[in-house]
Input
Amino acid sequence: MSYIQNTDADRKEMLAAIGVSSFDELLEPIPEELRMKGAFELETPLAEGGVAELFKDLAAKNRPASALATFLGGGIYDRFIPALVRYVTSRSEFYTSYTPYQAEVSQGTLQAIYEYQSLICRITGMDVANASMYDGATALAEAVLMASGIKGGGKVLVPRALSPRVRSVLDCYLAARAIALEEMPCTGQGTLDLDRIESALTEKTAAVILAQPNYFGLIEPSQELSELARRHGALLIACVDPISCALCAPPGEYGADIAVGEGQSLGIPQSYGGPLLGFMATKSAYVRRLPGRLISGTVDVDGARGYVMTLQTREQHIRREKATSNICTNEGLCALSAAVYLTSLGEQGVREVAEQSFAKSHTLYRLLTRTKGCRLPYGEQFFQEFVLELPMPARAFLKTAKANGILGGIPLGEQFPELGENALLVAVTEKRTKQEIERYRDIVAGKGGGR
Amino acid sequence: MSKTIFEKSRPGRRGYRIPENDCPVETIELAGMRRTPIGLPEMGEQDIVRHYIELAAKNYHVDKGIYPLGSCTMKYNPLVNEEVSRLEGFAGLHPAQDEEDVQGALELIYRLERALCEISGMAAFTLQPAAGAHGELTGIMLARAYFADRGERRKIVLIPDSAHGTNPASVTICGFTPKTIPSNERGLIDLAVLEKEVTAETAVLMLTLPNTLGLFERDIAEIVGIVHANGALVYMDGANMNALLGIVRPGDIGIDIMHLNLHKTFSTPHGGGGPGSGPVGVATHLAEFLPVPRVVEAGGTYALSCAARKSIGRVHPYLGNFNVFVKAYAYIRALGGEGLREVSENAILNANYLLARLKKTYDLKYPGPCMHEFVLSARNLKKFGIRATDVVKRLLDYGLHAPTVYFPLIVEEALMIEPVETESRETLDHFAEVLETIAEEAEKSPEKLHEAPMNTPVRRLDEAVAARCPDLCCSEEAG
Output
């Protein structure tokens, strides 16, 4: 299969128009000895039907979480996605365009991203949001770089109960920088130890990171942490789940300076963890420190409203090594998905998603409190995800659960040895049904048969 | 102008409903509840569809016409790739699933990595980086780990003045100091200058091949030799790899680290600014530093391994933009080896065909032949009071997209044109004709260019106002 339209006859005439007798003459700048000898060792080409067949087979070798009752979370969630999201993002006007460098013929993308920025501001309660980052993890890393740039400080406090995946990315990004991450342990309740944080805060502390909810699903004392950070002159970076912001106080309400998070929950398929959507918002005062694209409303020469990319002197293509970040291509289409998702569900719908996730996770939690053998170490102050301690290794339990059509959660023992190998992180979204939740309980109670 | 979703909102309307809750709880009590409404719009499904169709109509896109943005490689995005990428067996996978349940995904990643190795001649690839600039950052992190492992402290990364802005920005984030080296009168790296600039302090030479002028560095063998003789590494920005498929393999000519843009060379759509994918390939001596986990194969079974002790860690929370991999791999399988070479041959042919015609009308600072793109200058129109911006705004009036303008920085009034291989000869002829007409207009009726665009959804926008008082968020009062 080839997507080239030139025919041999075209090529011949084109070479003549260029004034060369063969294509090889055009390769004159490439020294002969540097050119590839022989052909690629790649599989033979496939026609469209062959491609479709091959990928159907590859896909069939997977057993997608979406086809099972999945209680997997840890940052990526199985949620209802309106058909509208797929419809809009499948329009080639959106997916085959690029960064809106020519604003006059990119008003569709520009307005959609302006609306996305506004929606993120409303969800997070912040003043300004950028046009997107790669994912929540790199958004957090960029937030730390931004905070350190503002404060000139070299130390950032990071909670123990942060996604280990996010933490690894953070470590990787900061390895080359003079910014030290100091880990803040949890209390026995699985949440931040505020006394410990208070004693760790010094004038060198640029920022404190809050994960809300934290990796164990628990709600942290955001207001208290915010006051503590402010008292010591450190910035507060809130890393939040966007759906939880419909129920829980959003970063703007407790005075966070920078809010970031993973936006996959906003209408983006799980897709084996990519592409994702990093969102990033801040206070007006810090807008010129933000990385990434920013879209602004403006007017054209006739006074008509329109949209443009703005404050580009922050960006790499203008400022080069002095830019706030190196980011160029971001996650435009995922930001569009989020905008369509939030518009489709609207005020009531997003609240319902949050409330149902809360209600369903708490339903399972309460069923498990009455189930013999398991233990729930951390109490009920969680949003949609909680830690479950089984009477057996989590991995053994997961096997039984899967035999019953359930993906039971993420084992925690490896990344959090202090929790032991029996600990499991269980997520319950709005998509789970009462029947699935009861089946989960039955398996924990030892009543699940093989299937 | 289109009203915003906030202005179209009416209390009580719904665009989508999730199923009724079959597990209600009496009360929701959490410490620190949200005190205020979110302020999300309320619209019905039909009006939401109409809103986005209204916006869609205001976008130029590859499916509408030629999109010759230099350096961006706006080629055709095959439809079958979109179709297969949406299969539930890919889209519905959670990254924490057991390896036995994601064998198809791991196989795809493994095979794509192998194919990229074959195509580039590099020893190993990581697919984690989510875009080209992310790949650059990853590549520079690898260089840093390499030198740290050898106990060397090298601080400088040399970058030609024609480079993308992402190059120096990536280098700085990674704690290195970028140093610009000037191009010579042919637009290439000057060997004498390079000899002088490469010292024991130099960690990396970061170059783009072909460079952003669309020129192949003829002296690349000598360049690599100078850098290696000093114990430094050569990083190749592979944004322009679509010129070299089946013609030059970077691994064969001594490149140590490179990135590819799957959304450029390998036809995955640009999505209005992402998601992209920027895999990084390395030579053997750098493979042990690649991000983890790695996909490994044994006896037809695929697994994830974190065994690499010297790995830089993770640059992505999972394995990268998987959905983009599906499309890129579909592209490679559809084309095969022969087809990939045809991509570059036709990209080069199309570019030279346009160049041969347009250099009669516009200035050409660095003579060809070019590779997949070329940079003209509109400075010959300055005498009529016309700048590059005016030329490209007029192009929009003719229903075509503009080339990249004012880049690379070393060409005055630059028009950077990349026609790509999928455009037909007739499309190229039409594009050239329009650019010729515009040059005539510049002389005879320059006001047409100054006033352009007239036929677009909006006319020239006031960027100064936006920068002075940015309106970045639709205020609550607006709806």
User: Anything to note?
Assistant: Residues 80-335 of chain B form a domain with the Aspartate Aminotransferase; domain 2 fold (CATH 3.40.640.10).
